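dumping this here before i forget
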Amino acid sequence: MGLSWTEVRFLYDRGTGLFRRGLTSLRTRGVRASWERVLKQFYRVPDTQLLALYLPQQEPFAHFSVPFSATPRASIVIPVYNQFEHTLACLRAVAAYPPEASIEIIVVDDGSSDATESSLVQVDGLRYHRRRQNGGFIAACNDGASQATGEYLVFLNNDTIPQPGWLDVLLSTFEEQPGTGLAGSQLLYPDGRLQESGGIVRNDGRADNLGRLRSALEPEFSYVRRVDYCSGAAIAIHRDLFAQFGGFDTHYSPAYYEDTDLGMKVTAAGLRAICQTGSRVVHLEGITSGTDIRRGIKRHQVRNQELFQQRWASRLQAHPDHEQPSVRATDRHYTRVVLVIDALTPQPDRDSGSLRLFNLMRLLKEEGAHVVFLPANRAHDGRYTEALQQLGVEVWYAPFAKRPHAWLRDHGARFDTVLVCRHYVLREWLPLLRKFAPQAKLVFDTVDLHYLRERRGAELTSDQTLMRASERTRALELDMIARSDATLVVSEVERSLLAQDAPAAQVDILSNLHHVQGRGLPFEQRRDLVFVGGFRHPPNVDAARWFVTEVFPLVHAQEPQIVFHCIGSDTPAEIEALASQPGVRVHGHVPDLSPYMDGARICVAPLRYGAGVKGKVNLSMAHGQPVVATACAVEGMHLRNGEDVLVADDAAGFAEAVLRLYRDEALWQRLADNGLANVERHFSLDAGREVVRRVLLGATA
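structure:
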């Protein structure tokens, strides 16, 4: 059977349209950018890299209800013009997975002639508003905004399927990303490919959708990112700010470039346009307006691009041209681009080193830097990777991150500073970094001085084999210090040691970084003892074993009701066996430590060797929980025995200190107050800010 006239016309229009757009692209974008667009059109995302999406079944209309609050936090405005089946699917998706936030849904009917009106008036909880005549997308959105009562306006196209949890994550952007003026969802095609992960505007005024036709799992499109604008299919903005801008600009009526213009107004006002990649919405692109720019409402896209370019010509001079790849196109929004490399992705609920690194990246973000993180093992570490992406960190992992030399060849020129954690990681990466990122300042983060920790362990056990191993570590660590531009240590003790062992090195202290959490429960409502420490770290194994076998029996003999809670990941058999002792409970990894930080009366830190600053001590003090520790455990922490902490190094003295503090409310309160003040003064994000600015971001005093 031959082709029908309609099919022939379709093929003709497609072919001539592609040819015409190709010529236009060559003239405006150049050969390289045009060729990349061709490749993008034919790129096939592997099935393993496609997201599984929620798509409701199409069913005939039946009575249902949508969430409604008389005092909404967010007003969802949905402009519609016919296409009732898509509006119905959109509303059913919102109703199927209602958000935790209080909402109202306002559907603005722009003169539909199908079943829209007769059906939507039957939907309970829906605010339905019908315009007198068709005025286009901008007019309908502005009408809906004028009727909204929520703190935030959320504009949602009717040809969308919001995914579960989309709205709560979208709204969280305003709290978690300071300075956010506009937040947009990540848009997806129904087959799971990306339609947009935010948008950028090139210097000729053309708008580009980041990630179009790629996988939503690709690292450059998976993190919460500053952009120039987000498509109006799913965006949120504070209602007062939208009113301040006069709504969507009617100069672009009936539609197109009004959302791009809004994004530019937000950034021109000193606020940020953010693509919230944790908020996902399926968008059936072009359902209402089509895709042919020569016909219908779509023809306004060309005219409005010219209007937009004329309006923003002066600001657009600083925007990238079409030759700049998308991975670098938003780096200009940040003061510096900092690459961080560590052996593994930080797991801040498992060890203090991870918490320090996570908060360091948070601090870099607060200071306006863009942070790129690459774990040396190139692994996606589940929720820990996603937590960094939600922080706004660009995290790379396999299969998207190539082997180190290839990845650095592609990305090395981006970085102003490179921070590498641990001497054995830097030893592998240093030659590649000097070759592919020669312009970057190379900073070595020791985390703690490994050779100092190893030497003390060898001295405690009088093991000459361990002593020789510590000397080898010393040689490697000092070599990395000598070949770096700057070195970070966590305490004055370590800096003083390096003043002797590496006198020519630039060494700065960047200690543990903690948020001060507050006081937790009062003395009389607290009970028991707690120890927290990851057991991949040998000093923690030794500490827990010594405390249970030598110290706790002395405590338990006088206060048998006291329970010792031993918490830590990677628990070995020898630590599990401690649970057989009276009053001892071994918990293993505990994802949320708050009940133990806020409810246990005392933290014990019985470390007999180690180096660096102990996060377990900082963590407890940040929760208003007093600490009994060895001298090693509080080394370099600016703590006074008897005022901020109780210190004892022998078993009898440690047990006596625990019992004294457990029984003396006045002493307990003094240590709790002073411990909180110590964390605020020496171990908060603010305490580390000056070093981060000077060493990592190149700020001058």
